[in-house]
């Protein structure tokens, strides 16, 4: 018995009675014109009905057909579509990343809050999305936040400022209103609109309405058409099967780490393990390994050591590495200085800059780990009394905790003790992710309602490291502060006091212009109070700032 033919699934395309009725109509018109003129080519056109289309055709006939095709296309475009449907606008799938972002920004705009930071937007939009905004699905590198690039490309979302803030455009507001109306209408969890994937590709034009003769591609066979239909059916089945997986990726505790779901990791800046005295730096790594410290070497934009709470993620069968877990930075950061390095940083100005950046990094417990350098201390460029005074100022004036050790082994021992202490301190705490821009740099311990567990608000490692970038885009206020701190005797506290009253150079120059005399200009800043003791800035610094910004020529 002959083998039975394989069963084909999918929609069958209705075969037209004529493979290309439009082409047949044109050839019929050409035949009639040739018959009126008495030309013998009418016999060639007559053979079309006998399915001998490609026989006895020349270049003139092909050019005539091209001209008629171009004319038909112009009429079809200029005639209001001629039955063609317009392209659909971009509409994100319900409970997708784009849907959640549009809906969240629209509801925030009703409360007169038109811009949102990234972390705030992710936290607020997570309840409206089935996928996670921070952790990709199994076997994928994309999260729900990946659809934001599509919204920006479609001119539905605007990204401004640094750090980035997001707001809706007029088109975005109009689309969000439609989504809000449909959400209020009790739509099901699985929307019938497909989200545009792969960067927001435009949807294909709809097929022509039934009853109108369409142009049929003569190069396409029936087998090709059926295979395309089969592929469409398979794509629909794959999409429907992936929806339960998306719903499983929703996380009830998004934005927080519960006790027992994370571990404390010591992060070591890679500069502390490479370059310089390679033997001495490798000794630090060996001591940490010998002490059983769980540490990770990575690039830190500020500080040399810090601790993160890393989420425990189970490995996935079939994958080489487990998916990355969330990381929240604890409020402790260590800057390690040998005495010779401390001397060099004081001379070239890095010492003040590093302390200023440590204060602004968002962590509340900065630590200065000062390491003695043995007999090399007698050959330093600065006297030992100057170095001792700088260390005392760091502890008393700047408020840093200063720990002095003798060598690399004691440094590793201190880091080991701190790691064990922090592990015990945070073992029963719920860690909540916060944003520096939204909540400021000050965060306190709270009690989680209903559970009686102490909670602590921390910033994510990604936001911390991005915000501590040394050469990132700076505001006018930040540049003005750095200018003021270049003046001898003008510390960070004094610069901050000046910025409270005059946030930009323009505002300071405007205040100078309003002064009636030169003496008044020189003493404009002398009564500004700074620091915890609220001391006056003094006439000497006030005069120096006035001369710096108001002297037209070179300073003497």
Automatic annotation (TrEMBL):
It is found in: Nucleus. Residues 201-210 have a biased composition (Acidic residues). Residues 265-374 form the ERCC4 domain. Coiled coil: none annotated. GO terms for molecular function: 3'-flap endonuclease activity; crossover junction DNA endonuclease activity; DNA binding; metal ion binding. GO terms for biological process: DNA catabolic process; double-strand break repair via break-induced replication; mitotic intra-S DNA damage checkpoint signaling; resolution of meiotic recombination intermediates. Keywords: DNA damage, DNA recombination, DNA repair, Endonuclease, Hydrolase, Magnesium, Metal-binding, Nuclease, Nucleus. Its EC number is 3.1.22.-. Interacts with EME1. Belongs to the XPF family. Interacts with EME1 to form a DNA structure-specific endonuclease with substrate preference for branched DNA structures with a 5'-end at the branch nick. Typical substrates include 3'-flap structures, D-loops, replication forks and nicked Holliday junctions. May be required in mitosis for the processing of stalled or collapsed replication fork intermediates. May be required in meiosis for the repair of meiosis-specific double strand breaks subsequent to single-end invasion (SEI). PANTHER family: CLASS II CROSSOVER JUNCTION ENDONUCLEASE MUS81 (PTHR13451), CROSSOVER JUNCTION ENDONUCLEASE MUS81 (PTHR13451:SF0). This is Crossover junction endonuclease MUS81. It comes from Sphaeramia orbicularis. The gene is LOC115438132.
